[in-house]
Amino acid sequence: MGTAGTGEKKESILHLGQHEGRDTMIQGVKWTVRDGFSISLWFDNWIGPGPLRNLIAGPLTQEEFTLSVSNLRETNGPYTSCPFRYLTILLDSSAAVPAQGQDSWAWAHSASGDFTSKSAYDIAEKIMGNPRPVAQCNWVWKTQAHYRTQHFLWLASQDRLATRDLLHHRHIVSENNCTRCPNSTETTLHILRDCDAAK
């Protein structure tokens, strides 16, 4: 999509969002083992919190480099050709899976394998670092205030008001300073208490 009169190309918000979410998806998905043909033994996430290669130090031979999970299932029993002895202990979890059907993707951070927004958000917060503190403010819902007031108080207590600081943290705006006080960061506390416009 071009910008009027300049001929410059600008990325769409959807494309930027996909780019930002790539690391979250990579960390969030894992393989579900069936026949094992599609899964690299060392470089795909299929057994735990990441690829097995991250747990093994030292070089791999060319033969080991190209192993798939299916290569370890032999008629003599599961994983008899395993190049490292202790890997058989790690791989026992998939030995019980019948070798039928095609391997498939699943969401690693839920018991059912289904994607959840909450778990994806938690992963994204860890990737970005400095997760925002969350207060336990369930008392807000027990007040005699109007629902909209309760909702506003709850957002404020969770630091989820659409302040420039939060929008900057989510890469929506480029700066986090207050539009009325340029030398101050526009946080929830600043809007409600410290800003000159709030006094």
Folded structure, characterized:
By secondary structure, the chain is mainly alpha-helical. The chain folds into 2 domains: 13-128, no CATH class; 138-198, no CATH class. It contains 7 helices and 4 strands; from the N terminus they run H-E-H-E-E-H-E-H-H-H-H. Strands 1-4 form a two-stranded antiparallel sheet. Helix 1 (13-28) packs across helix 4.
What key phrases describe this protein's structure?
2 domains, mainly alpha, elongated, 7 helices, two-stranded antiparallel ribbon
**Poorly predicted runs of 5 or more residues:** 1-5, 75-80
Provide the β-strand percentage band: 5-15%
Largest sheet: 2 strands, antiparallel
Instruction: Compute the average pLDDT.
Output: 77
DSSP E strands, number: 4
Tally of DSSP helical segments: 7
Structurally, the number of domains stands at 2
Please trace the helix and strand order, writing H or E for each element.
HEHEEHEHHHH
The structure class reads mainly alpha
What is the strand arrangement across the widest sheet?
A: 1-4
Tell me the span between the first and last alpha carbons: 44 Å
Overall 3D form: elongated
Rg result:
25 Å
**Helicity range of the residues?**
25-40%
What does this entry show, briefly?
The protein is mainly alpha-helical.
Task: Present the secondary structure layout.
Layout: H1 13-28, E1 29-32, H2 62-65, E2 73-74, E3 77-78, H3 87-95, E4 104-107, H4 117-128, H5 147-157, H6 164-169, H7 188-194
Antiparallel strand pairs: 1-4, 2-3
Helix pairs in contact: 1-4
